[in-house]
Amino acid sequence: MKCPYCGYEESKVIDSRPADDGERIRRRRECLNCKKRFTTHEVIESVPIIVVKRDKSREVFDRNKLTAGILRACEKRPVSLEQVDQIVDSIESTLQSSLDREVTSQSIGELTMEKLKSVDEVAYVRFASVYRSFKDINTFMEELTKLLKEK
Fold first, then answer.
1. Is-contact 88 71, C-beta < 8 A?
2. Could you read off the pLDDT of 42-52 as tens digits, one per residue?
3. Among the four 3, 87, 97, 110, which has the fewest Cβ within 10 Å?
4. DSSP of 97-131, one letter per residue?
């Protein structure tokens, strides 16, 4: 870390503490050359997740878009906003912890269906009907049959 007073590039950390609700780290440093102290703030750099859609176009992952899709599937169902937020948090956390910076919309859909299945089966089927583009009642029945067999 370059000293703002003398320009020397070596310093030692005197004190570290979280700042801004844990979003930053505040560090007090001392220059090893001139012995003056200064403060730095470190921020975790977030790398955006790119979603590769079915038509091969790419866009930045949008948490709000995922939330809206889940809310639509859970409409008039006994699923709280807190549960929806937990699902979205879980999916976003899985994506962030993945080493891949590009993820397909299909894998996000699969993750979402997996989470919805454990929360509300009707919401799961609703989401699956849009995500898997059910063409007719037979496709819908096949999904329901699979769900019943798993029980």
1. no
2. 887 777 899 99
3. 97
4. HSS-SEEEHHHHHHHHHHHHHHH-HHHHHHHHHHH
Tell me the pTM: 0.64
Work out the average pLDDT over 111-139: 84
Whether residues 32 and 59 fall in one domain: no
| Pairwise CA distance, residues 69 & 116, whole Å | 11
65 with 97, same domain: the answer is yes
Give yes or no for a contact between 51 and 69, defined as CB atoms under 8 angstroms apart. Answer: no
Rounded Cα–Cα distance for residues 55 and 139 (Å): 23
Residue 137 has pLDDT above 80, yes or no: no
Domain of 139 in residue numbering reads as: 50-150
Q: Are 69 and 140 within one domain?
A: yes
Domain count of the fold of the chain: 2
Q: What does each C-alpha distance from 94 to 76, 88, 110 come to in angstroms?
A: 28, 10, 12
Tens digits of per-residue pLDDT, 33-78? 999 999 998 887 777 899 999 899 999 999 999 999 999 999 999 9
